[in-house]
Amino acid sequence: MQLLYINLKYELNREKEYRDDWIFIVDLTVELGKEKGLVVLGVSEQLLVEEVFPSKRGLQHQDVQILGLEIMSSTKGELIEQKLTEITQKFGCPKQIIADRGSDIQRGIKLYQQNHTDVIYTYDVTHAMALLLKHELISCEKYQSFIQQCSQCRKQLQQTELSFLAPPSQRSQCRYFNVEKLLEWADNLLNSPLDILTDLVPNIEPEILLTKLKQKLGWLASYQDSLSNWKQMVQMTRTVETQIKLEGLNQESFSIIQQYLTVEVDFPQGFAQKILGYLTGEISQMKSEQTLLATSDVLESLFGKYKQFSSRSPFKQISQIFLSICLSTMNLTTTLVKEALETVRFLDVEDWAAQVFGQSMLSKRRILFSATTDDTETA
């Protein structure tokens, strides 16, 4: 563990190239407690143009570098702007910043742009498409009724022999990022042959099984027509995301998406126009022959790996495990490990961790609950 932290601290402190073609990818993550973790990734435009876009692939963890990793008790826009300015002074001014539109992040980037007017602020396409879906579906009474009945159905089935038919759980924080899972469940169930269901529950008579299915799942039939419309909207967003994530956002990809959304007459055209409105706004900032990165998926992936580590902790607070984000972007070679050991002392790592992270929740809890109130000894 000591060696791991030495390598991670080395990665944070090591000299990185000063460039004028950086693209910053910025986001915050939160756990228990008031602290939030700010991460700023950097990828060069040169790497995107020469390797990533020609290969039609998404960014991989080792394509990016950690330019900033901060634990913040306050994430006001002014503080975000300050951190971005510090990173700029160390590594160079970016050509583009990609982020969602969380209030603090957005304000910080807007303040930063006041002093760096040529920097393009791109709204991450994944968040943009999820927000468009949310606005469309949250105002649809039938869809809200559908998800309520899905939730009730899950509760009714989870302790029965039909539990394998229950709808997937709905995560409140990511509900509109994963709409298709619920829609696919409903569509698959409506089209499942009864004889297969009968074979899967052999201990129930077919007539009794049919009655139970009607009682528990018969309500799905009333949504069959609406499901088709909702699935079309999801398909539109996923197609747009795939095009932009693999080939970047430029005039050519915009034309391809525009043709796709307008030629398919069965698509909900009002929703198609909202997607085109987002793309038009983003592409209006760029030069005619420029290709922009328009996704922060690589950072979301790093957050996902970090949370796999943090889920093993008794308390999910931002602690030293937050440094594991660096681990995924590093190419751990013998030379790198040797240089880290020669450069960084573990005592310095401990002092730095104590200053940045402070005393952990688990440590505080142990001290509190280990305090004895009398002299009674347990046999």
List the keywords.
about 375 residues, alpha/beta, 5 strands
Describe this structure in words.
With 379 residues, this protein is of the alpha/beta class. Helix content is 56%, strand content 9%. The chain is built from 17 helices and five strands. It has helices at residues 2-13, 45-52, 77-91, 103-115, 125-138, 141-157, 179-190, 194-200, 206-217, 224-247, 251-263, 269-283, 297-310, 324-329, 334-343, 346-357, 361-370; strands spanning 22-30, 36-44, 65-72, 94-99, 120-123. It has a five-stranded mixed beta sheet with strand order 3-2-1-4-5, with helices on both faces. β4 (94-99), α4 (103-115) and β5 form a beta-alpha-beta unit. α5 (125-138) packs antiparallel against α12. The protein starts with a helix and ends in a 9-residue tail after the last helix.
Question: What is the secondary structure topology, with strand pairs?
Answer:
Elements: H1 2-13, E1 22-30, E2 36-44, H2 45-52, E3 65-72, H3 77-91, E4 94-99, H4 103-115, E5 120-123, H5 125-138, H6 141-157, H7 179-190, H8 194-200, H9 206-217, H10 224-247, H11 251-263, H12 269-283, H13 297-310, H14 324-329, H15 334-343, H16 346-357, H17 361-370
The count of β-strands is 5
Helices, by number, come to: 17
Largest sheet: 5 strands, mixed
Structural class: alpha/beta
Strand content: 5-15%
- Mean pLDDT equals 82
**Percent of residues in helices:** 55-70%
Give unreliable regions as ranges.
none
**C-alpha Rg (nearest Å):** 25 Å
Distance between the amino and carboxyl termini? 36 Å
| Shape type | globular
Secondary-structure element series: HEEHEHEHEHHHHHHHHHHHHH
The spatial strand order of the largest sheet comes to 3-2-1-4-5
